[in-house]
Amino acid sequence: MSRLDRTRTSPHQLRPFFSSQNLLNRSDGSAQFDFGGSSVLCSVTGPAEVKLRDEKLDKATLEVVVRPLVGLPGVKDKALERNIRETLEPLVLSGLHPRTLVQIVVQTMKDDGSIASTAFNAAIMALLDAGIPLSSILGSVTCTIDSQTNDILLDPTTEELAQAKSTHVFVFDNKASIHAEDKSSMDHDQASSTQESSSAAVLFSDSTGLFTEGEYLECAHVCFKAAQAVHGFIRTAVEKKLLKEYQQTSA
Amino acid sequence: MASEPTNLAISPAFTFSASTFQKLHPLEYFRKFASQGVRPDGRLLSSFRPTTVHYGVITTADGSAMVRMGGTTVVCGVKAEVAEPRLHAPDQGYLVPNVELSPICSSAFRPGAPSEQAQVVSEQIHRVLQESKVLDLKELCIEEGKAVWSLWVDVVCVSYDGNICDAALTSVMAALSNVRIRKPTYEEGVVKVAGVDLLDDENSFRLNLARTPLSVSFALLDTDLILLADPNSAEESISQGQIVITLDETGQLCAVSKVGAASSSQQLLKQCIERARERSQELRRIMNQEQ
Amino acid sequence: MDRKRVAGPELSVAPLVEYPRDHKRWTPQDEQRHDTKRQPEDMRPIYLKTGLINQANGSAYIELEKTKLACGVYGPRPGKRTGFSGHGVLNCEIKFATFSCAKRRGHMRDPQEKELSQILSQALTPAVRLDLVPKSTIDIFITVLESDGWGSCVAAAITAASVALAHAGIEMLDLVAGCSAAYIPSGPSIASPTPSATDATNATGPSLAPRIFMDADLEEEKYEQGAIVLAYMPSLNEVTHMLQSGKAEGSIVSQSVEHCVEACNKIYAVMHHALVESVGENK
Q1: b/e per residue, C44-83, with b = 16+ CB within 10 A?
Q2: Which residues belong to any copy of the Exoribonuclease phosphorolytic domain (chain C) (predicted)?
Q3: Beta-carbon separation of A89 and B253 below 8 A
Q4: How far, in Å, CA of C265 to CA of C178, rounded?
Q5: CATH 3.40.50.970 fits A17-250, yes or no
Q6: For residue C188, what are the domain limits?
Q7: Number of Cβ pairs closer than 8 Å across A and B?
Q8: Counting one residue from A and one from C, how many pairs have CB atoms under 8 Å apart?
Q9: How many CB atoms lie under 10 A from the CB of residue B275?
Q10: What pLDDT score was predicted for residue B9?
Q11: Residue, of C200 and B96, whose pLDDT is higher
């Protein structure tokens, strides 16, 4: 089984993750997240003063600004802005900081496909770095269905996206995976695959192209599994960072 | 003087009329209805508003349609103009959809540059048209590398009452199916069309649409994820998220999006797809009736 | 380059329309008007309805055959301007839909739209009791869906806006009806659709009195030597705004004003009917 992306052997293989937190010293939190050749840098400022027009009396206002790799932001970036903002809104415990602004700036650094997913992951890591209270974390994975082989390809590159029949971006929070673990540990008898797919609750989904309902659910299932790796990676990254900070302060 | 305290003790301190209650606690007001399985406008949670489609309402446009979904009215007009093709696609025309949410249709919109919502809806329609290959852009070629048709598909919202997404896409598809372009002739850098009063199959052509994607929207009310089909503007303002399912006439999915609110189970998504399938068939029936 | 809209080609033009040799188009020499059913003093039938926009305080939709426009009134609502003002402000904005004219229009507000907005505001302000709404703004938004003649578009906008104001329950001295007329030279020498300096020097041209066409459409407007738009309050018998452009003898102008006043009285009946109907619906 070969992919257009020669570095990978299996269609369900993700590109290597890379992340780095606290890169920018003028913002309250920042993070970079890479999926192979795609890289997004994200900064978080807040809780900060909010414009009177945007002020919400009972919670913090979330503002997302998306900057593309080249040129000025257009309608595509505006759509991504809205998607990120509305997905993060239920996750951020905004009631703890009423009448403030949390600004998230997303800057694409390198683009080789799956930018939306990279941006979601970078945003959540930057929020963690800024210490904004969250109810759960999220992990995002993109997949495509190849127009020639009809295979589900995870984490596609630009080349693979061009050859795709349909493109699917999924975001899962780790609440769903916690429930899935609980359930599978509780009743082993039931078939785990059906259990998992039914409990793979979708936080955000954006699919375009031409596809059937079966293909869509299959993609959701494959991405849900892959998102577990992203969750695990984010957890490890944060743990490592905290450990390092602890060592530095105690030393 | 003495009777006042007793009066207060008997009657509650505040009593609201229904409309005041709605203004103060829109969400609570809605929940009172939802708990009975109905909505304030009398619909069931899963029912859609009456929809009408009219074709060819604008004679200055090359194709047009007006769609009314409850209180939402949109007019879509298509204008065909001649442009130079892109360098990397010398035989492909342009299909440019844009949605205008001007201040006339609701007090929520300000004059000036398009709001975020207008941009997002325009982009959604643009992506559906592009990704599900509705129109082969090669059909719009006049002279390769020299001149192509540019179809400006502009949607004007006249009255806004929620669910602009469905109304706009329906009007775009209806207007595109209504398009008639005069057959062009290309001569030394000039594109000419014959001026005739009546357009028929001899002197004009219609667009060969590969499919007709139609979207069906649901609003999500947080906490218990109540699903509201075809939300109006009051329901949109209290909802936290939305699910939009786009299907073509064969029942194939063209787009699925779920934005905002808490995680929804796949069961819920399946339910939406099922409802969307029925609704898009109904919409198609309405569109074909009028044609 | 507009970044807030889906991008198309940077430059696009309408194709050249070529008419066959034997194509007969309407000219002022024709016995009848462009719309053969109409006499020179006839207006196009008016369709007027209120309450199209349910989010607005008041709204109206007007249709004069091909001229179609929608009007929404918002307010009185707090004005943007800081500082106290004893009078409210009437803010009018006209927007042409991109597909409303023969040539595609841009999304941006152009000078013509600004001019029309100003005319509308001047025509309506005398009728509205702005002294009753201090510190407030009344916004009138108009979207022209299809335009068939500049004059009829302005007149229809005035008529629709005043009905929408009444529908919003804003106090006025009277409804304002708008009416337009064009002076079309009937001299046999004029054959070209561009009445320019050559016509003025023509010996037969000016001596013949031009015909007055009420509510001229686009095809007739191409030949006009002047036009008039009148805004008139029928029950008070007062004119709020008059716009006369082009060259015409005084007698022609006063004659056309009389025609317009007469037509406005007819329009008033239609406006009245539309408003009574909207009250009936509310009951």
Answers
A1: bebebbbbbbbbbbbbbbbbbbbbbbbbbbbbbeebeeee
A2: 42-171
A3: no
A4: 10
A5: no
A6: 46-282
A7: 102
A8: 10
A9: 18
A10: 52
A11: B96
Kindly state whether residue C1 falls inside one of the protein's structural domains.
no
**Which residues of chain A are within 8 Å of residue B115 when distances are taken between CB atoms?**
none
Residue among B165, B225, B250, B259 with most chain A CBs within 10 A, to mutate: B259
The single-letter code of the amino acid at C46 is I
Rounded to a whole number of angstroms, the distance between the first and last alpha carbons of chain A is: 51
- Model pTM? 0.90
Q: What is the pLDDT of residue C201?
A: 44
Element containing residue A110 per DSSP (H, E) = strand A101-110
Enter the DSSP assignment of B162.
Answer: S
Give the model's confidence band at A181: pLDDT under 50 very low, under 70 low, under 90 confident, else very high.
Answer: low
Q: Note the pLDDT tens digit of each residue in B128-174.
A: 999 999 999 999 999 888 899 999 999 999 999 999 999 999 999 99
Closest of B151, A71, B152, B117 to residue C107, by C-alpha: B152
Residues whose CB is less than 8 angstroms from the CB of residue C210 and which lie 6 or more positions away in sequence, other chains included? C183, C184, C185, C186, C225, C226, C248, C252
pLDDT score of A105 more than 60: yes
Residue B61: DSSP 8-state: S
Residue A101, beta-bridge partner list: A48, A61
From A77's Cα to the closest Cα of chain C, the distance in A is 10
CATH architecture of the domain with residue range B51-290: 2-Layer Sandwich (3.30)
Cα end-to-end distance, chain B, whole Å: 73
Residue C39 lies in a domain: no
- The whole-angstrom separation of Cα C162 and Cα C75 is 14
In Å, how far is C271's CA from the nearest CA of chain A?
40
Q: Do A204 and B259 touch (CB under 8 A)?
A: yes
Residue C268 lies in a domain: yes
Helix A75-88, helix A115-130: angle, nearest 10: 50
The SS3 call for residue A99 is coil
Pairing of strands B184-187, B241-247: unpaired
Is there a domain that residue C37 lies in?
no
Provide φ and ψ at C154, rounded to 5°: -65, -45
Mean pLDDT for A67-83 is 94
Q: What is the CATH number of the domain that holds C244?
A: 3.30.230.70
pLDDT score at A193? 45
**C260 near C242, Cβ under 8 Å?**
no
Amino acid occupying residue B201: D
DSSP B91: T
B154 at C interface, C-beta within 8 A: yes
Q: Considering its fold, how many domains does chain C have in total?
A: 1
**What's the distance, CA B235 to chain centroid?**
16
Chain C partners of B117 at a C-beta cutoff of 8 Å? none
Integer distance in angstroms from the first to the last C-alpha of chain C? 50
Could you check whether the bond before residue C76 is cis, i.e. omega within 30 degrees of 0? yes
- The domain ranges of chain A are 17-250
Structure confidence by residue, pLDDT tens digits, C42-96: 889 999 999 999 999 999 999 998 999 999 999 899 887 777 888 899 999 999 9
Confidence of residue A191 (pLDDT cuts 50, 70, 90): very low
More confident residue, B139 or C283: B139
Cβ–Cβ under 8 Å, residues B54 and B62: no
Q: What radius of gyration do chain C's Cα atoms show?
A: 20
